[in-house]
Amino acid sequence: MKAVVLSNVSKTIKAREVLRNINLELEKGKIYGFVGPNGSGKTMLFRVISGLVKPSSGTVTVFGQTLHQDVSFPSDIAVLLEKPGFLEQYSGFDNLHFLAMIQNKIGKREVEEAIERVGLDPRDKRPVKAYSLGMRQRLAIAQCMMEKPQLMLLDEPMNGLDEKSVDQVYEIIREENERGCTILLTSHHKVDIESLCHHVYSMNEGVITGMTTLRSK
Ligand SMILES: Nc1ncnc2c1ncn2[C@@H]1O[C@H](COP(=O)(O)OP(=O)(O)OP(=O)(O)O)[C@@H](O)[C@H]1O
To answer: What are the GO MF terms of this UniProt record (predicted)?
Structure first.
């Protein structure tokens, strides 16, 4: 079974086709990069795969389940989109613990471990509104991996991170992939894509214009 299959997916917003006839078959356990200029449709593609946006035509299947048909949202998926939203007046731990309690899949210890893994302190009582952009981004990455999903969609995960944090996030992405997680990521930095991805898709004006294989293992 493939991780993600898109068949003839198009999305029209206000009479503009922002995704045009996308066909994709993504294997389980690989890291895929998506590159392209601003506005080429990378974020929209991730929204469609995560079930947040319904395509105007075509089908999206994640781990064998067709979205908006078999299920509303894919299961076992974590998504990092631009500008992660948190409860601003609560601490990082409280935010993630709250989300974990809703899902009821993991406990306090796993939340603490995820926060430590991204280099934040689970005992830090400061509210998220006092966090820097990089701290927010790290918290969002902790949120993505805390429930050990089978598929992660990371839109610009290195956004706002300093050099040391970028290395930490590279390491986390590689470790998550080694435990079998399929990862899709976008980045405007060639080095991120080249360091991490097995395959890279190029997008332009809502179309996939090419695919390059960087490594097979
Ligand atoms: N809610 C919306 N309403 C109207 N147009 C939208 C909406 N969301 C996205 N678009 C348009 O869809 C196109 C694709 O946008 P998208 O955010 O997917 O690009 P991107 O490749 O992620 O760009 P970037 O590199 O800047 O993140 C753009 O032309 C954008 O203006």
So the answer is: ATP binding
Q: What is the pLDDT of residues 131-165, one digit of tens each?
A: 988 899 999 999 999 989 999 999 999 988 889 88
Distance 205 CA to ligand 1 centre (A): 10
Q: Which helix (H) or strand (E) holds 117?
A: helix 108-117
State if residue 11 touches ligand 1 by the CB under 6 angstroms criterion.
no
Sign of torsion over alpha carbons 62, 70, 11, 48: negative
Predicted ipTM? 0.93
Q: φ, ψ for residue 13 (rounded to 5)?
A: -125, 125
Of 188, 84, 202, 204, whose CA–CA distance to 144 is shortest?
Answer: 84
| pLDDT tens by residue, 105-138 | 888 999 999 999 999 999 999 999 999 888 999 9
Q: How far apart are the first and last CA of the chain?
A: 19
Distance of CA 33 to the CA centre of its chain: 11
Q: Are 64 and 76 in contact (CB under 8 A)?
A: no
Q: Encoding tokens for residue 81?
A: 């989109």
Question: Considering only the top CATH level, what class is 1-78+205-217?
Answer: alpha beta
Pocket test for ligand 1, best of 10, 16, 43, 52 (most atoms within 8 A of CB): 43
Length of the chain: 217
Ligand 1 close to Cβ of residue 38 (< 6 A): yes
Q: What are the backbone angles phi and psi of residue 138, rounded to the nearest 5°?
A: -65, -40
pTM of the model: 0.92
